[in-house]
Amino acid sequence: MMLPNLAPISELYVSYDSAQKLKQEAADLASWDLTPRQICDLELLMNGGFNPLKGFLSEADYDGVVENMRLADGTLWPIPITLDVSEDFAAKLEEGQDIALRDQEGVILATMTITDSWVPNKAREAEKVFGADDVAHPAVNYLHHTAGKVYLGGPVTGIQQPVHYDFRGRRDTPNELRAYFRKLGWRRIVAFQTRNPLHRAHQELTFRAAKEAQANLLIHPVVGLTKPGDVDHFTRVRCYEAVLDQYPQSTTTMSLLNLAMRMAGPREAVWHGLIRANHGVTHFIVGRDHAGPGKNSAGEDFYGPYDAQELFKQHQDEIGVEMVDFKHMVYVQERAQYYPVSEVPEDATVLDISGTELRRRLREGIEIPEWFSFPEVVQELRRTSPPRAQQGFTVFFTGLSGSGKSTIANALMVKLMEMGGRPVTLLDGDVVRKNLSSELGFSKEHRDLNIRRIGYVASEITKNGGIAICAPIAPYTATRRAVREEIEQYGAFVEVHVATSLEECERRDRKGLYKLAREGKIKEFTGISDPYEEPATPELRVDTEGVEVDNCAHQVILKLESLGLIKA
Ligand code: PPS
């Protein structure tokens, strides 16, 4: 039987006085502004959550971790904790030099002595750690498209914890949790890792797991970085707080873990186990497809459904935490009770709601039954994900100059304002160029910058429940895609191609610009001396030739209705 070692674990922080001194000295050091993921990693390095690591991995440790899940000295460690930086920054450094690690506001959190600097083979890292060099995997995508080209390794000296302004009382370091368990006399503790809201089935399965292990329960949700598209942690924590009241008093506690998940399935499960061991727990619930990243680019799962459980079992002794099987719970209607799927009485009516179905019900404002979740949880989720017809969205017109984008966009704005309910903002090409982008010209670089600015403003409007109507030329597919991705985090992105032909735009030549462009008096003119990449699959394509503006705007309204974004 595993009993917890609840003695304090070693941290990387120096004493308060040394920290003050170090902070002053560090002002002169070369400094690196940490990314959100690096801040999460640094916090767990400094507070002992990543014990036995003493800093960001050296090259030898990294190689060992990538190849066989072990540090150079043979210790089990499955995920590379590396400090990725730009080539320019790395070029200025020498071995043995100290650098300051700062948060995004410039506060010095730690110093690090550089022992190693190398260019990693990212394809190998992707294959070995995540199982495939496929950017459909969020961590592989991060590795190739966000992470810097060079890795720095070396020991870290902790100055101060990253500051959190939210849920302070719910965040605990490993030592704080250990002290809490000691104080309450908890000897066996089963931890439940989650990045999703908890519903009745989760409450049942965690409570059962605790009973089976004769243990107390620690709900240990991740609030650092989870999978893109997850419910934000603010909402989740309010949901967890509501569920916490459902457990018998003093059997269960909840603590927030500022971990940056990698969605690495089996390796991630082992990593989660090690982190939990550092937090003083004895048991850990691992389920089907633990920390799964979704489908690969061929539409298949990255890992087998039980790979995580198998890998965990193999290394259980070294991890120092016992695995508890996650039981898939379903609701049996006749008994009005939850059962593990394997124990469902014969001929019983089994009810279950999948994650996809839940999202559909939220999106469409359909009832979510009480047997499935707690009313307080549903209420929280509805506050953050109102039905589609109340969410913000962006209509993004694209087309040649003089194609009629602005005219249709204006008509659409007026129609939407007539309907009321949500604020409407029009970001017209010309208007944006007068205000947001007055210093920009029409090179590819400047056009991209212009579109990205429009995208940023539209994403903020969408996030806050408004309607953004954009009407720039936006000639490049890749830039339009980037803006779509940014906005789709918060609401729908409806691309409308105003497909007026070049001949027609030139014939109309409302502003006389085509004539000037033909005469060479305006350079880089879209359609004449600069490219326009037509959208291949816009949500809507409107043809303005021989069609009234009112009718074009109406087509957009019909599209918005069919997408459920407005109600007829
Ligand atoms: S872009 O490519 O999306 O950044 O362009 P946009 O911000 O929509 O600006 C297009 C308007 O600027 C005028 N204009 C030009 N258009 C294209 N190419 C060149 N070289 C150019 N120079 C000035 C033109 O009036 C466009 O307005 P619209 O409303 O599209 O006709």
Summarize the structure in short.
The protein contains 20 helices and 20 strands. The protein has 568 residues and is α/β, with parallel strands linked by helices. α9 (233-244) links the parallel β9 (216-221) and β10 (252-254).
Structure commentary:
It is a single chain. Helix 11 (307-319) links the parallel strand 11 and strand 12 (322-325). It contains 20 helices and 20 strands. It folds into three domains: 16-158, Sulfate adenylyltransferase (Roll), CATH 3.10.400; 168-257 and 263-330, 3-Layer(aba) Sandwich (Rossmann fold), CATH 3.40.50.620; 388-562, Rossmann fold. The chain has 568 residues and is α/β, with parallel strands linked by helices. The mean pLDDT is 95. It is 38% helix and 16% strand. The strands form four sheets. Strands 1, 2, 3, 4, 5, 6 and 7 form a seven-stranded mixed sheet that branches. The protein has a five-stranded parallel sheet with strand order 10-9-8-11-12, sandwiched between helices. Helix 3 (59-68) crosses helix 5 and helix 9 runs antiparallel to helix 13 (375-384). 3'-phosphate-adenosine-5'-phosphate sulfate (PPS) binds at residues 401-402, 406, 429-430, 433, 442, 447, 450-451, 472-475, 511, 513, 522, 524-526, 530. ATP binds at residues 399-406.
Q: CATH superfamily of the largest domain, called what?
A: P-loop containing nucleotide triphosphate hydrolases
Low-confidence stretches: none
What share of the residues lie within helices?
25-40%
Return the CATH architecture of the largest domain.
3-Layer(aba) Sandwich
Ligand kinds = 3'-phosphate-adenosine-5'-phosphate sulfate
Question: Which sheet architecture does the biggest sheet show?
Answer: 7 strands, mixed
Look at the structure and give the CATH class of the largest domain: Alpha Beta
Number of strand elements: 20
Oligomer kind: single chain
Structural class: alpha/beta
Mean pLDDT: 95
Please tell me the total number of domains: 3
Instruction: Kindly provide the radius of gyration, computed on alpha-carbon positions and rounded to a whole number of angstroms.
Output: 27 Å
Tell me the span between the first and last alpha carbons.
Answer: 63 Å
Named CATH topology of the largest domain: Rossmann fold
Give the count of helical stretches.
20
Tell me, briefly, the overall form: globular
Pathway: Sulfur metabolism; hydrogen sulfide biosynthesis; sulfite from sulfate: step 2/3
Catalytic activity: sulfate + ATP + H(+) = adenosine 5'-phosphosulfate + diphosphate; adenosine 5'-phosphosulfate + ATP = 3'-phosphoadenylyl sulfate + ADP + H(+)
Domain ATP-sulfurylase PUA-like: 8-160
Keywords: ATP-binding, Kinase, Nucleotide-binding, Nucleotidyltransferase, Phosphoprotein, Transferase
